[in-house]
Each structure stands twice: as C-alpha cells, then as structure tokens.
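In the current project phase, the collection of sequences with tokenised folds has grown. A sample record is quoted in full directly below:
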Amino acid sequence: MSVTVKSVEKGSRAYKSPVKKGNVILKINNNEIMDVLDYRFYQQSERLTLEYINSKGKIKSCKIKKKECEELGFEFDTYLMDKKHSCRNKCIFCFIDQLPKGLRDTLYFKDDDSRLSFLFGNYITLTNITEHEIERIIKMHISPINISVHTTNPELRVKMMNNKNAGRALDIMKRFNQNGIKLNCQLVLCPDINDSKELERSLCDLLSMENVECVAAVPVGLSGHREGLFELKPYTKEKALDVIKIIDEFGDMCFEKYGQRRVFAADEFYIKAGLDLPDASYYEEFLQLENGVGLVPLFKKEAKEAIDLCDYKLENKRSITVITGEAAYPFIKEIVDNVSKKWDNLECKVKAIKNNFFGGEITVAGLVTATDIEAQLKGEKLGEELLIPSVMLRDGGDMFLDSVTVEELSENLNVKITAVDNDGFVFLDKILGKDF
C-alpha cells in the first residue's frame, strides 16, 4: 500500500524536494509507508531517503536533510492517510446496534482501529488487528494501547462478541505486555454474563500483567431500541454492589503489590448501588475519565476549589438555567446550591433531562438530545442563559445527536445556549457569566 500527496506546505523541507502534489510516497529509509503511523514514525530521522512515484509513473528516490522530529511538510487526503478500520464484531451489548433509525450516518459507523487508539484514545477489541499491526506496535513501541477486553475467558469472549477471532485477545495482550507496551483496559459488564466469577477471572488475568496500567468496569448501557437483539438485563442495586465489592478487593490487592489501585468501577456503578462516590484522590491519575471513571469526583473537587478560591463580585442579578442528565443531576444540583450560597444575587435553576429519545436505562448527559431538551423546557422561564454540558454535542460543538444544531435549539427556546466543558473551574465561570 502507498499514500498519495495531496499538497506540500510552502517553505517546508518537502517543498524543496522533487516530490510534488499527486506523487505517491512508497518508502522512507526503505520502510514501507502505509498510513499515518508509518509516516510520522519514519519521518523523525534527520537524514531521509524517500522512494516515490512521480507524475510520469516512474519510481524515483530523493534525499532530504532536516532537524530531528521536524515535520516534512507533506499533506494527505485524510489524517490517517487511509480509511478507518471498521469493527467486525457483533457484540451483544453494542450501543450502536441500539440506536434508533434516522440519525446521521456517521453515528452508525463502528471503528476498531489500532491507530485511533494511539492517536485519539479510542478503544479497540484486537479482533481486527493484523500480525503486521501487532509487530508495528511493538517495533514502534506505540504506548499506551486502549483495549476493550470485556472478558479474558476465550470461549465467553467469542460468544459475547460473535467473532471467532475474539478469543485470541489475551495472547496478543501478553505479547504487548512482554514488550513493555502499556495497556488500559475496559470491561463492559453485563449482569450474569461476564460479572461475578467471570469478572474475578478477568481481573486475575489482566492484573497479572505488570504493564496493565488501569482496568475500568463499566455497566452495559441499554437503550429502548433493542428489538431483535440479545436479551440483557440492567444492573440492579444488589448486582452493582457485588461488582463494587469485587473491584474493591482487587484494587486493595493491587495497591499492596504496586502501590496503585489500577482497577476501578465507573461512577455509574456507585450511583446504581446507592453508594457515595470515593473522593477524587482515590482515582490516582484518572486514566479512564472517558469511561466515566472518577468523572464526578474530579468535577466536584474542581468546583469546590473554584468556589473557595473565587472572589469575583457579581454586580448585577443573574438568572440562568443549567441542564444535565438524570444520573449527574444530584451532583450538579449540590454544586449549584453551594454557588448560590456564596453569590446571593444569582438565581440558577438545575434541570434533569429525561432521555425519552433513547429510552431504556439511559441517564447520562452525553446522550441527551435537543429533542428532549426542547420538549421538557419549552415554555419555561430559563433566564438569560442556558448552560449545557459540552458532551451533549459532537466534535466541533455545533450539533446534538439528533442532528439539531445549538443555534436551532437556541432559537426554539428563545435563550442563549452555552456549552460547558467538564471542568469545575470553567463551570463556575460560566455560571457567574465571567468574561474571559
């Protein structure tokens, strides 16, 4: 495989070379260039020999001298220089299979791409990985790799993922571990399938590898659109308590062995179990925030520090509304109440938006749609501004999951809408309407 040059940055090292727009790069220093990882890794040297196909279809070579790690200056059609690798599994718990019809096409695409794991932190299942990619990860020492494990029982993994290759994941992980590749692991738990004894087995296997940095246990998300899919049950309070007990036992063992807990339950498990969430210090380096592990404790810690340190004077009365999902509502309400105690000329309402669009057991803020927001807030006095979590929006911050834009919702509700990142200090600033 090879990559075609889309353009060459003016003034760059590449601009001075004979390689032009439309030429095809074959090799750098005799290493085949297949995609972004190859290109970025092999372009780091100070002395490069490029093999390429010119506009006449002839294979040529040229030498380029540059500073170590300096960018060459070639640009390509896509960031990956290749198509995303799609998922070949049919997991019994896959949330994409539970989406209602009629959403944007991009929402139905399932990626399972080792390159995206390294570049953007995406989780991969290892069922889609080739021997070439395994060897490349080891050779380039690409680390960490984020892996959706779910279970280390080969037979059970095959059944859960409906993929005959799913059982070989542990062997691949062992190879990575032996070569010093750091691993962050995710276990999506389904009641009575891969929890209880199977969870204990998975944790024993994973935590025996010294380069497994962190393991996150996440409860399966069940929407109201599971017609024809594998029958799954939501987590009850009792089952959630069982998961946390196992996580605590293994976390204690890890702490004794490594001085780190390494295994954590997602915040949602504590909410389902009716338990108080641990303090932020419990979560060490917060390696699994994207899986909802320690997200609430960190946000609460930041917000408390922000409130304690802030001496901003709110000169005029301010009236706003904050919305979130049902799961986070008690925590956001607690923070807002503390803000209101310090700034008595602030009127801030907090509303939990019920997820009727996806239905089922979905309560997280990141899956709230504009359709539900409008239906549940229409006609209410929202004040001068409506604050929403930025996780409700796609990358770029302009559109909800149901393809409604922020501008459209703002017009429909007749209120200014501001998206707020998951940062306690930023949240306080937005509540107070501070200008930056």
Remarks:
- Residues 134 and 345 are 59 Å apart (CA to CA).
- The chain has three domains: 3-76, 96-293, 299-432.
- The radius of gyration is 25 Å.
